[in-house]
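thread: overnight batch results

M.L. [08:02]
morning all. the overnight job finished for the chain we discussed friday. pasting input first so we're all looking at the same thing
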Amino acid sequence: MAVASFPRALKLVLVDEGGLDDDPHDHGGRTAHGIIQREYDGFRARHNLPRQDVWKITPAEYTEIYHDRYWMPWCDRLPAGTDYAFFDACVNAGPAQAARTLQRALGLRPDGNMGDVTLAKVKELAETDPEGVIRAFCDRRRAFYRALAQFPRYGRGWLARVDHVEKAAKAMALAGVEASARGGLSDDLKSAASARAKAEDTARPPLSTEAGAAATTGTVIGAGVTDQLGQSLQGAASQLGRFADTIHIVKYLLLGIAVISVVLTLYAAWHGARTREAAA
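M.L. [08:03]
and the structure it wrote out:
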């Protein structure tokens, strides 16, 4: 849902995709961190770079591929948790299949094209039951894998992947709900919300006389309490501020007394020793 979700989602995907692989039974062929050779060749060509073995891919390169080809353009517009689950499905089965799976989970026509209808539906359902959306989506992913011809060979790994994707996605969704409940908006979102509120206040039509009087009274009372509280806090702060210099002076005086006490103690010990020596 937020750009900040991508690094965490990518980290989780990379755990599932593993490192270097060249499975003869895998149609993707030679693979590094989930990126196949053919895809890497296209990436290098778009950047006017010479072709090279995908096993030499750098973290910056595969991060760009994952972000631009699988995270964008939809994941930033999906609710927290659903964004990661959808991203993982895009990586593992392709963006079109991920879209069809999500649409089936939402009860929409599975045309494989993400658009305003799909986005509106997922946001609507996620507002009341974000975990339910993730659960339905993951159930549809399991059904998709079970129908594949290679399920007997890879099915256990696919289902295990969906299991922990679902668990992590639900945790992300819950964290997003808790952050919203605490008012955990980013500074940019807070600024945008504040600007929108001001614009709405400016455009709001005038109240009726009765309602306006009641609202004004409530506003004045609230403002008065706020002002008094603010003045009290400011007064307390200023009172404490007056003693700041005194506190510093006392601190240094105490330090000086401690030093003098140590010196006197040492002197007394030295003088006593000299006196005993003279008496002997």
